Amino acid sequence: MNKTTALNGFAKDIHQGLTSTPKTLPSKYFYDSDGDKLFQSIMSMPEYYLTDCEFEIFNHQASAILDAIAPHKRPFNLIELGAGDGSKTRVLLDHFQKAGVDFTYCPVDISPDILNELEEKLREELPNIQVELLAGDYFELLNNKIGKFEGRNVFLFLGSTIGNYSYKKSIEFLQKLRAGMRGEDQLLMGADLKKDPSIILSAYNDAHGITKEFNFNLLRRINRELDADFNEANWMHWPTYNPETGEARSYLVSRVKQTVHMKAIDEVYHFKAWEEVHTEISRKFGLDDLQQLANETGFEVVDHFFDCKHYFVDTLWKPTNHS
């Protein structure tokens, strides 16, 4: 009996991806507890320049960022979408606290484990900061909770997470976010900039194979949670970067003709030899791309904050005033 209709979101999404053409696996499911740890390892790899660039921006330009988001030290809620371990954000939090500005930090993440760890670290390092944890889906929280917050909201969407969406999905995401924002709210968003293609590709093809493990961990999760029989030896991780489109993509490629059985939903999936399964996209942007994205989603670009190499930008936007 086909049980897919009665399944949770994870099983449905995996089934949908593996029955689509071409096959896909949704990257949001990389982040179980093992995946969270692997991603922390990725962020500390020398090849993964994005983290260092954003750290540099926050360490050197926290004052300028604060002046832009809180002129005259106006109070605000700092709402971080996809907070993760909050390591970069703590640089800003420390600076904002020392500057004497009144704010509440509201980290949002789909992973309650990550949020609890973040809260523990904040208690140790920055015990005087007001924190409100928000676990769950961004837009459900935006509609049901964040939209009722008093005062101005400044949204953080860091680490070039916007690049993990296709062009169409990024438009949809920003339009939904814009719909939940008020006139004086702002968005500070990280974006990885177009640069030497070899530098970009090496960030997704590291010498120690951590990115490969990050992808393979999803197969392990499917095996464990959906009682599947993916054999890792039959797969290879294949990252690519296309400078024309600005897209870095990751694939799992089937080395052999094979069949995978998922007992939890009583489904069988057939893979041809060298068939690819798309797992992840990371888009890179020019400043003109970001301007176009803002124009199409109801935002106005306020300022850009760059690292010294101009590899990365944290771009500050506000809702367009239509009056």
TrEMBL record:
Keyword Methyltransferase appears in the UniProt entry: yes
Coiled coil: none
Organism expressing this protein natively: Phaeocystidibacter marisrubri
Pfam families per UniProt: Methyltransf_33 (PF10017)
Enzyme class: transferase
Enzyme Commission identifier(s): 2.1.1.44
InterPro entries: EgtD (IPR035094), EgtD_Methyltrsf_superfamily (IPR051128), MeTrfase_dom (IPR019257), MeTrfase_EgtD-like (IPR017804), SAM-dependent_MTases_sf (IPR029063)
Record GO biological process: methylation
Protein known as: L-histidine N(Alpha)-methyltransferase
Keywords attached to this entry: Methyltransferase, Transferase
Residues that span the membrane, as ranges: none
The Histidine-specific methyltransferase SAM-dependent domain, residue ranges: 10-318
PANTHER family in alphabetical order: ERGOTHIONEINE BIOSYNTHESIS PROTEIN 1
One Gene Ontology molecular-function label: L-histidine N(alpha)-methyltransferase activity
